[in-house]
Write a structure and sequence with these properties.
Radius of gyration: 21 Å
Shape: globular
Structural class: mainly beta
Largest sheet: 18 strands, antiparallel, barrel
Number of strands: 27
Number of helices: 2
Distance between the termini: 33 Å
Order of helices and strands: HEEEEEEEHEEEEEEEEEEEEEEEEEEEE
């Protein structure tokens, strides 16, 4: 089975699982350093633009250059009976793989058929309108130091991910009807939605797909079904993404509301845009993700918790 690019492509998750900190560790970090978003990276003042109107458009996102807002998790719980008779449980979670099928909500927002919500970097930076470009990032580990990249040249897309012993490369053809994938599998988009064709059972991007994979079904202009997730437009023009999240345009910002924990109600985050910047932050703009770009690179800063010494900075290089 092919190693999955979907697990190794560049991603950032806005809502990570809650972690348990000891009181001593939490207080130590609190008094030594509290990271926060660099507010100069958040669109404001004359640079701030009104977001595009919210939309619901079935579409294909084949580049996998996404910044996760909500990443679904596949979790398993293991229960062990210890020698002394006590019982311990361990919960392990892995990210749910991406799918190229989904729904575009406008402003670079994309929901795939597995319930993952992300910013599509190729769309938000305008690269999707180009016939030729390459995006690359460093992909170093203890065993190798290379770069991952995705490139488009006309009607061909190539995804490349270096491996420890064997590199992984996926080639995709763009057609008027959708995409030509591996194993003679086609991804077809028409007035009814998006679906796979030409397969009984195959492996695409390292993920085994059976006879009935998730699809996008267009019910009406205000209702789409993306796999198990129903996406609808409410009477106030907000977009409801199942029970996962909602999005609504509010003046010069987009308000995203998602389910909170058992200890709190819904959680709000705010999306701001300019010509070459975007930010997804909490109410006081201290935590979240910022993105800025030009013709040569995309700069991403991530601060998801104040219990950290520094935010995480990432760079994606662009060649046109």
């Amino acid at each position: 089975m092919r190693k999955s690019l979907l697990y190794t492509e560049f991603t950032i998750q806005l809502f990570p699982a809650l972690r348990k900190y000891s009181l001593f560790l939490a207080m130590t970090v609190l008094f030594t350093s509290c990271a926060s978003v660099d507010k100069t990276r958040i669109p404001a003042g004359p640079d701030l633009q009104d977001p595009e109107p919210m939309e619901m458009r079935a579409g294909i996102e084949p580049y996998y250059q996404r910044v996760d807002i909500i990443r679904q998790q596949d979790c398993t719980t293991t229960t062990t009976v210890n020698a002394d008779g006590s019982v311990s449980t361990q919960r392990n979670c892995t990210p749910v793989p991406y799918s190229p099928m989904g729904v575009f909500l406008g402003n670079g927002l994309f929901v795939d058929v597995r319930g993952n919500i992300a910013i599509d970097l190729v769309t938000v930076t305008g690269l999707r309108n180009l016939q030729k470009f390459t995006m690359s990032r460093d992909s170093s580990s203890w065993f190798s130091s290379q770069e991952s990249r995705v490139s488009r040249d006309g009607n061909q897309i190539v995804l490349f991910e270096p491996g420890i012993f064997l590199d992984d490369e996926v080639r995709i053809g763009i057609t008027p009807r959708g995409l030509d994938l591996e194993d003679n599998v086609k991804l077809i988009q028409d007035a009814n939605g998006i679906r796979y064709e030409g397969m009984e059972k195959t492996t695409i991007f390292g993920i085994e797909i059976g006879n009935d994979p998730p699809e996008v079904t267009i019910n009406s202009k205000d209702s789409l079904q993306a796999g198990p997730v129903k996406i609808v437009r409410a009477s106030d023009e907000s977009i409801l993404v199942g029970r996962i999240a909602s999005f609504r345009k509010n003046g010069d910002q987009i308000v995203m509301e998602s389910a909170g924990s058992i200890f709190s109600g819904n959680v709000k985050h705010y999306i701001y845009r300019s010509q070459n910047k975007m930010a997804i932050v909490n109410e006081d703009k201290s935590l979240g993700i910022t993105m800025s770009w030009d013709d040569q690179s995309i700069q991403i800063q991530t601060v998801l918790s104040m219990f950290s010494y520094f935010g995480q900075d990432s760079t994606i290089r662009i060649v046109k």
